[in-house]
Amino acid sequence: MASSRTTVRVVVAGDRGTGKSSLIAAAASESFPECIQPLLPPTRLAPDFYPDGVPVVIIDTSSSLENRGRLAEELKRADAVVLTYACDQPATLDHLSNFWLHELRRLEVKVPVIVVGCKLDLRDERHSLSLEQVMAPIMRQFREIETCIECSAANLVQVPEVFYYAQKAVLHPTAPLFDQETQALKPRCVRALKRIFILCDHDMDGALNDTELNEFQVKCFNAPLQPAEIVGVKRVVQEQLPDGVNELGLTLTGFLFLHALFIEKGRLETTWTVLRKFGYDDDIKLRGDLLAVPSKKAPDQSVELTGEAVEFLKGVFSLFDNDKDGALRHSELEDLFSTAPESPWDEAPYKEAAERTLLGGISLNSFLSQWAFMTLRDPARSLANLIYIGYSCDPASALRVTSRRLADRKKQQTDRNVFQCFVFGPKNAGKSALLKSFLGRPISDSYTSTTEDHYAVNDVDQLVGTKKTLILREIPEDGVKKLLSNKESLAACDVAVFVYDSSDEYSLKRTSELLLEVARQGEESGFGVPSLLIAAKDDLNSYPMAIKDSAKISQDVRIGAPIHLSVKERDLNSIFIRIVNAATHPHLSVPETEIGRTKKHYRQLVNRSLVLVSVGTAVAVVGLAAYRAYAARKNSAN
């Protein structure tokens, strides 16, 4: 199966007089040009020129100083670069390693490089070293060199091969599959091939029997293996890797060994064909067209896992919980994601977002909460990882789009299972401590200012017996302005909390300012959110006017009184249940500014006037109809 590319653009560069133009002309015409212009126009090799059926466009370049700007532009647009030197001019090879390869790095041209020695027919054979001797030290220094080749345009020796290797390096690149330094398959390639092996191991006995091998061969290459060929394949593996074959068939170790062998022998297209047949792209990730992610029609919608996907994940959790202790240890979690390109939770914002057991494991509830978080934040990533770990149902059955938050507010209820809460507050108010308490983690005595968004996710048991997933997103004070610069920033928010240090008068003042900023944004954008005021650090003595001042702030914006809590003394005052309850009643506790109330009152007056006008119009129409009926009866009577 070929790459999805429709063309391969190859740029030829190198010192003047190294044979660039002659090489291109000889490849296109299959003859040596006696007279050739200094710089050729773009040259196209037809799709049927090489077996992959993808046309190659070759760009000739000038190495003169006045054309350096144009050269740099062409190199940056290249899919592959052919660097030339002249076999009869050793200085051009030195310049290639001392200038050209460094120039590609300076320009950040990160594409395969083919080094080509032109004018092979003119080389002095008396003082020649083998190509391998000459290029080995250069290739060790510059890993971007895919291959090296010598050719003669005059004698038409290995001319087509130059652009074949360039095309092959683009369509079937080595770098994603194989580490030249360690001479081993790269981790992402191993993970993809492991998933393919598991998908082909229909009887799940840990080996591919002859039938399964044949089905794999037909699926990937549209041709079965003959019995003698299967025996031959197994023999090759067993001779070099005894545990690559057992009495049941080809093991995973043997399957991986075969692909490493293909790559070492230059048959990269074999492994790429297999990967692409199973839906992988050039980055060894599932192609986007295989991920049926439901689209949101409005910014205040979100994406959640369906019940079917949740049940699948519960089964996966149980399967990989080898010691049946109700938690996945790091090694068990790594094993679970061993068929994904990498573990999706090894980096921010997922790495520290979920609650962990004392031994560092993750419980089923935390596992499902983490999936809910990933689904809300990045639905495509979530769906891809579901498929990587074995979700075989229709991908469209895994995710669902919620109703709009505005619609929920009008209905005064919501069917969401996952709520996102924005946590606002000034520095040192207790925001991070609140997130840590949500995950059951101890708080630090020393203060460290938060400079970027942090997340905490967990499930919350409601008083009525149902569970909801709550995602707390801590917004640093310095990040509020940037957040609110996006007019739709509150569309993804189900509820907001405003945390202040109850012992600090300035903290409350700054929190009230943040509350008003967010309230104004909600009124202007139409994405107002239920809001709670949290008086943190209740274990400290509050300043004299604290209760009166905080009560006035709540009353001014018409939200509930502040909720007092102390993370230090573990008195959380059911705060997380309260947050979820506010989110499940989206029509309540939405703050109003004075301007917002005035506009709301004006709209109500206008609407009332329109109602009165419509009623008056209706009465007039009815009266007119009655009069016409009366007049008609009167005329008929006369």
TrEMBL record:
Cell location: Mitochondrion outer membrane
First-level EC class: hydrolase
Database matches in Gene3D superfamilies: EF-hand, P-loop containing nucleotide triphosphate hydrolases
Domain EF-hand: 308-343
Membrane protein topology class: Single-pass type IV membrane protein
TM helices/strands, residue ranges: 610-630
One Gene Ontology MF term: calcium ion binding
InterPro entries assigned to the protein according to its UniProt record, in alphabetical order: EF-hand-dom_pair, EF_Hand_1_Ca_BS, EF_hand_assoc_1, EF_hand_assoc_2, EF_hand_dom, Miro, Miro-EF-hand_domain, MIRO_dom
E.C. numbers: 3.6.5.-
UniProt keyword terms in alphabetical order: Calcium, GTP-binding, Hydrolase, Membrane, Metal-binding, Mitochondrion, Mitochondrion outer membrane, Nucleotide-binding, Repeat, Transmembrane, Transmembrane helix
Keyword GTP-binding: yes
Any one GO biological process: mitochondrion organization
GO CC annotations on file: mitochondrial outer membrane
Pfam families tied to this protein: EF_assoc_1, EF_assoc_2, Ras
Domain Miro: residue ranges: 5-172, 416-585
Protein family (similarity comment): Belongs to the mitochondrial Rho GTPase family.
Record's protein name: Mitochondrial Rho GTPase
